Each structure stands twice: as structure tokens, then as C-alpha cells.
Amino acid sequence: MSAFQVPAIDISPYVHPDDHSDADRSAVARAMDEACSTVGFVQVLGHGVPSGVIEGLGSAVDSFFGLDPEAKSAYQLPPDVNRGYTPPRSESLSLSLGVESASKMNDFFEAFNVGTAASEFPGLDLPVSDYSENVWPSAEFRTRVSAYYAEAGRVAHVLTHVFADALGLPSGFFETFTDHSLDVMRLNNYALPPGTVDLDGDLTGMGEHTDYGIVTVLWADQVAGLQVLGADGAWHDVRPADGALLVNLGDLTAQWTNDRWRSTLHRVKPPIVGGTIQRRRSAAYFHDGNVDALIETIPTCVDEDHPAAYRPVTVGEHINAKLRGSRAGVLYTESDRGARRVRAASS
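Now predict its structure.
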């Protein structure tokens, strides 16, 4: 257990290219390839997100989730609209893998989703069902969340440049797949009022799952709860280092690379202290790619020993199948790879 580590990588040579050499960037790309091939999670430093923007995000999270349930429910939208408020126990992330929760209890986290809207690309006629408009509880909330959303999106794009170099692809390879990317940011709050915790059950903050798209940029409190499934088949606790953003790969990148890079299973089990949940906050920015982009295995990741394992799929087709699992309760059946990994894992 103690041997498990999430590598830390300073991406400042890509964030500030004029201050660094090609050799510096090559070193970052090599480190990223190693981390993505072995763990699939990375602690990213040198990302350049101002501390004031992160503090503003935290205050926005606190202000919204501190509202009473009735006020929050005013921003709840139908399950097929991936925006707005999600109350506790209304989703089950494990269904997106094709795994039923052992306790049949939905995840207890509550969330608020914002994302890229069709109105931001007026000339593309994007489907509003995928690029839904946002709802905003207040102007201040919108300003603070949007500021961080822009920064997280910038980091995600920087990471795809690192990925292209790490995979030996042409510079800017991912840009044609992400110029109107189906991005969503989910603000998460893990807390339940005193007296609502059932200590006799297996209370799950967020069930085991892989992320769906290209890459996830995660800001999180330094509170226990996030666990990553290691190559040893055991779950390992992960907390962000000071100033770090956690980055993990999604299913589409695993498919692109023919599983050369890992889409790592993870879950959230915040600790119960004195009969109550220790509060934990996070903001996950999902960089998923253009809804109409076709994801096919990269030729450099295929050889005689590693034939292409996935059929081509559009981003929209894949993401919507996953969301039908987590948000609408429809068991995902496209692939059983993730489900097998969950069932084989030690608890």
C-alpha cells in the first residue's frame, strides 16, 4: 500500500514556453507518458491558476451548498440535462461502468454542473441537448465559477499539447477534436446533516467509476476520501499536494491509445467522524472533446501484439451512453472491462 504514488509533474515548461527549452518540454512529456502508462493519475504543478481564482471558486461552492434544500432544488433540472443542481442520492456512478451498487444505495454527494453552451458557438448549430445552457444562482456565483472554469479549460488544453508530445503525435493533434469541446465542470459537496448517516450500510460518497472523456482537471480539498484503484488491485487514498491539481485520464484517451494509457478507476469514501461525514469539496473539469469527433485508435498504439481493441465511436455517442448510466439509472453495457476491474478489486 505504501508503495503506491501519484506522480507529481511540473508543466510550467508548457505553460510558459518562452521561459523553457525544448529539452525541458521533452522531460515533461516523458514523465507524463510514464505516469499515464502506469497510474493514470497525476499531481500537476506549475499550472498557473491564480490562487485568488481558486479561493473564489471555493467561496462560490460554499455559498451555494450552504443554501437550504428548497433553495438549491430550484436549480434542479431533468436528468437528461447535464446542468444545474443534483441532490444527494440521485445518481449512481457505478452504473456508468455496468456495475450495480452492492447496497443498491445511490451516491450521497450533491453537485452543481456548468458547461459549454451551444450559444458560445453560434455558427456551428450544435445540439442543445449536449451543449445545454447554464443556470446561475447569482451573478457573483457565475463570475467566480466562470473564472475558474476558464482557467481549468486552459490547463486541459495545455495538457493535450503535453499528451501529443508524449505520444509522438504531430503538435496540435488534439486541437481538431477539441475546438468546440463538450466540457462540463461539476462542483461536488460531500456532507450530510448530523443524524442522517447510516453506519450499518456501505455509505458511498461517489461510486467507483472511470471518467468518460479525454482528461479531467480536479481541484479538491485536502480531505481524505478520494481513492484510486492501483495495479495491485487495491484501493489507495489520494490527496492533492499543496498547490497541485489532480489530473486523470478518461475512457476516450484509453481508447485512443489502445489502453497504452490508463483510464483509472476511482471512488470517493469520505471518512465518518463522530457519526457525521467529514465535509469534502471538489470541482472536476471534464475535457471531453467535440460531440461529433470520431475517436479511433491512434495507429502508433497498434501493432501485432496489441491489435485495436475498440471500435470507432463519436464523443457524443460515448458520453451519452455513460450519462444514461450515472444520471438516468440505465446500466452501461457497451463494455465490461471496467466492471471486471471493479469486481476483481479488493474492498
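The chain has one domain: 8-344.
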